[in-house]
Design brief:
The chain is mainly alpha-helical. Helices cover 76% and strands 2% of the residues. The protein is built from 13 helices and two strands; from the N terminus they run αααββαααααααααα. It has a two-stranded antiparallel sheet. Helix 6 crosses helix 7 and helix 9 packs antiparallel against helix 13. The radius of gyration is 23 Å and the shape is globular. The two termini are 37 Å apart.
Length: 292
């Protein structure tokens, strides 16, 4: 039964297309493994406990990324806290409330255009608007606001596509049972689209972690850890005040180390970035599986 007519009459074009697909996959996997092996081979020996828990200081003769690691986590949390509600809310409005027409088409075209703008342009805009107009100094908050503008189009488009994959029968069934539109969105639509929404968040986290150009103009490059106060209240105040201070992320520190010719340190930071991104993606995948 396996000797079917389809298998007997496979066209050369189909064989070529299949070979091209497998070739593209092989090249992609090979490039990924090559990059990982190269970075890990050159940077693993630089990683140590002191490297992860100390900061770079010429006086103490120490090299560490603890401050940059903390700044990176700050940047991820703050950017997602700002961009995720706005992106999901805008996608819900465009997909469920707005009437199809020129205005919706214009908004979608604008978001697609914004997603292709170079990050350096966002950095210049963030420096001008958040710095000169809103009078915010170089700080993690200014960097997070700028990155929120960068990842917002990505979140909107991914959330829209996730909402469109939900069958219309889910909507009509919930509304037919007497549910309000917002109740249907909150209890039926969003849970069904949650895996796709989390995929957009995963992609946004990758872009946040990999950004350096925009942050050089907005967040600065300070690598110091916050000075914790006495007791829990003082420590919380110090951690909260860190938001308004200048701070360089891991990618900014990697760029500076490369500029200074410290290639081993740069490759060590690259290793930490890859491991951190892998762990965050794994957590997001588990959350998406749980939601599914």
């Amino acid at each position: 039964m396996r000797d079917t007519i389809y298998q007997k009459h496979r066209h050369p074009g189909e064989l070529f297309l299949e070979a091209a697909i497998y070739g593209a996959v092989s090249v992609s996997v090979t490039l990924l493994l090559g990059i990982m092996v190269c970075v890990l081979a050159k940077g693993t020996h630089k990683i140590s406990w002191s490297f992860l828990t100390s900061v770079t200081s010429n006086l103490r003769q120490t090299v560490g990324i603890a401050g940059n690691l903390l700044n990176t986590l700050y940047m991820i949390v703050m950017t997602l806290f700002i961009a995720a509600p706005l992106g999901v809310g805008a996608a819900i409005y465009l997909n469920e409330y707005a009437k199809p027409g020129k205005l919706v088409n214009l908004i979608e075209f604008t978001t697609e255009t914004l997603s292709g703008i170079p990050s350096i342009i966002y950095g210049l805009f963030g420096m001008t608007f958040f710095g000169d107009v809103l009078r915010l100094n170089y700080s993690l908050l200014r960097g997070a606001l700028t990155l929120s503008l960068m990842v917002l189009p990505l979140m909107i488009r991914n959330t829209q596509e996730a909402l469109r994959t939900v069958p219309d029968s889910y909507r009509s069934g919930a509304l037919g049972m007497g549910a309000t539109k917002w109740y249907m969105i909150r209890t039926v639509l969003l849970p069904s689209a949650m895996p796709g929404i989390l995929t957009g968040i995963i992609l946004s986290v990758g872009r946040i972690m990999g950004e350096s150009a925009a942050l050089l103009f907005t967040a600065g490059s300070n690598r110091l850890l916050p000075k914790l106060g006495n007791g829990l209240a003082g420590s919380l105040r110090a951690l909260g005040g860190k938001v308004m201070e200048s701070g360089g992320t891991l990618t900014v520190e990697l760029y500076q180390q490369m500029q200074n010719g410290q290639y081993e340190t740069a490759f060590g930071i690259g290793c930490v970035l890859m491991v951190l991104l892998f762990l965050l993606n794994l957590l997001m995948k588990l959350a998406a599986r749980k939601a599914r």
